[in-house]
Amino acid sequence: MQVCYRNTNRTTVFAAGELKKYLTLMGNNNISLCYKDQEDEQMDSITLGTFADFNLPVLSSNAATLFLDDHIIINIKNGTGFIAGSNHRSILLGVYAFLTRAGLRWIRPGSEGEIICHKNVEEISCQINENPSYRHRGLCIEGANSVDNILDLIAWLPKVGMNSYFIQFREGFTFFDRWYSHHLNETLTKTGFSVEDARHYVKMIEDEIDKRDLIYHAVGHGWTCEPFGIPGTAWEKVDESKLPQDAFQYFAEINGKRALWHGIPLDTNLCYSNPVVMETIAQDVVSYLKTHTRVDLLHLWLADGSNNQCECENCRKALPSDFYVKLLNLVDKYLSQNHIDTKIVFLIYVDLLWAPVNEHSVNPDRFIMMFAPITRSYTASFAAEKHLPPLPEYKRNRLTMPKRVEENLAFLKAWQEIFIGDSFDFDYHMMWDHYSDPGYYFNAKILYEDIKNLSKIGLNGFNSCQVQRAFFPTGLPMYVMAKTLWNTNISFDDIATEYFNASFREYGSDVLQYMKTLSNLFDPHYIRGEKSFTDPDALAKFKKIPVYIRSFEETIQKGMQYPSQPVAQSFFYLNIHAQGAILYAKFLEFAASSSVEEAKAKQTEYFNYYRKNESVIQNVFDVYEFINTIQRKKYWN
Q1: What's the rounded Cα separation, in Å, for the pair 503 and 440?
Q2: Neighbours of 571 (CB within 10 A)
Q3: Same structural domain for residues 379 and 447?
Q4: How high is the mean pLDDT of the chain?
Q5: Domain with 108 in it
Q6: Which helix (H) or strand (E) element contains residue 52?
Q7: Domain check: are 143 and 103 in the same one?
Q8: Is residue 330 part of a domain?
Q9: DSSP collapsed to 3 states, 135-187
Q10: Which helix (H) or strand (E) holds 358?
Q11: pTM greater than 0.85 (yes/no)
C-alpha cells in the first residue's frame, strides 16, 4: 500500500504523512510514501493533490477566494483512489474527513483524544464531494495557556474541519503569562515569563499554522497604543510616568482630561479627529505587514472597553465609526501603494455598533466585517425572523450596550446596509458563558442554533473568542461548533450522539442524559444573573444535584476502568467534574438561601478544589478563566 502526493507543497506532504500515520495506527502495515514520479503502479495507492493536480474544476478563479474557501473531493474504493482539495489546506481536511468516515474520532486535542478504530484499508470505500457551509471556521486565543495547549489545539482544528486560528495582540503575551505565572492558582510554582518568551512561542505556533496552511488571523487590539511607543500586552494598569509623554496629546479627552482610560493602554481610545493619530496608526499597519508576511487576515480594532471615546470639539462632530471607516480607508490606500494585498478585519463592537453616517468603505474587497456582540445574552439564539427594534440614539460616553439578541441584530443590519462584503460572527459562547452551564448541554445547543442561523442573518462563518482549554467535562460544544460550521444540515442530536458514543462508547447515551440533566438542574438562567438571587425554583434544583450526581457515580467508576485509554480518560474527567459540581451546587444552594457567609466559604472551597486538581486537568480546563469568571458574578446583594 502506498500514499502518494502530486505536489511537494509542505501541507500536502504533511497530509500524506498524516494519512500514513493514522492508517498505520489502524493496523495497516508497510505503507510507503511517494511523490508522483515514484509511484509503483503495481501497488494499491491513495493519491493526494489539489484540484489542479487532478484537472478538476475549481469553485472560483479568484485567488483570494480560492485560498479562503475549502472544497474536498474524495473517491476511494476498497482502499484505492484519490483525495483532492481546492487548496493545500483542503487536502489535509480531506484526509481527516476520509479518516473520520473510516471510523476515527478526535474528541479533544492531544493523543489522549484520539479514538482509533482497527480496520483494513482495503475495506474502506468513501465518496465525498463537499464544501463547508461557511467560509470562516476558526478560534481565537484567550484564557491562560501553555504553548503545548495551543500546539495541540492547532493540530486538532483541521481534524474536525476548522480552517483558521487567531493570535491576539502582537505576541499574545498575556495569554501565556497567565499560565506560566499561574495567576489565581497559588498551589502551582510560578516560572519566570517574558515578552521574548511569548514571541518565541508565537513563532512556534505560526510554524504549525503554516504547516497546515490554516488561515492566520493576527493582532486586534493594540493599534491605539503600540504605534505610539506604548506596549499593549495585557489588560493591566501601567505607570503613566514611564510612558512617552508626547503620546498623551493623542489620548481621548474625557471629562476635560487626556489620560489613560483607567490606567490601561489597551482600553484607551485616541483623538481620532487628529490627523497625526490616523497617519501614525495607518503607517504602523503597513510596517507591521511588511515584516509579518505570513498573516492572512489582519485585525485592526480600536481600544477595548466602552463609553471611552474622545469628547473634544472635533471628535464630537462625527461618530466613532465614521472616524474608524476613515482610518480603514487610509490603511487601504497605503497598503495598495505598497502592493500589500492582506485583508483587513474591522470590528463592530460596543461603541462601534452604531454604524457610520458620513463615511463608507471605498474598497470593500480589502475588508472583512466582524460582528462581535460581546454584551449579548446566551439565553436566546440568533434567528432571522426575530422582530428587530429601532436603534437607540448614539449618546457619546453614555451608551447602554445591547443584551437581547434582537437588539444586537438590529445594529448588524444597519452596518450591512452600508457594507456589502465578506463578514463573520466573533462570539463568546466558550469564553465565559459555558461556566454558567456545568453540563455544557444548553450552551452547546445555543451555539448550534447560532451557527445554523448565521447565513440567515448575512454572516459567512464564525471565529470563537474563547478559552482554549474548553473540553471539561466534555468537548461537546467544541465538537458541535466544528461539525455545524462544516454542515448546518446535521442535527444537534446527531452530533451529540456521535460525540458521546465516541467518548464514552456503550455508556454514551447514559452520559449524554446525565450531562443534559446537570445543565437543567444547574439552571444557567440563574447563574447568568437572569433570575432573582433567591429564586425558589433554582434553589429546589440545586438541592437535587448532589443526590443525582451520586446516583451516577457507579457508571463513572466503571467507565474509568474502560480498556480504551481515551475512553477511560473521558470518565476520569467526568469524575473530577462530578466532585466539583457537588461543591458548586452547595455554593449555589447557600447563595439562593441568602446564607451569604456560608456561600462565600463554599465558593472558596470550590475554587481551591480546582486549583489543587489543575495539574491533572490542565489540558482540558482553564482554572484561571473559570475562577476569574465565577468570582465576578453577583449571587447576593
Answers
A1: 15
A2: 23
A3: yes
A4: 96
A5: 2-130
A6: none
A7: no
A8: yes
A9: CEEEEECCCCCCHHHHHHHHHHHHHHCCCEEEEEECCCHHHHHHHHCCCCCCC
A10: none
A11: yes
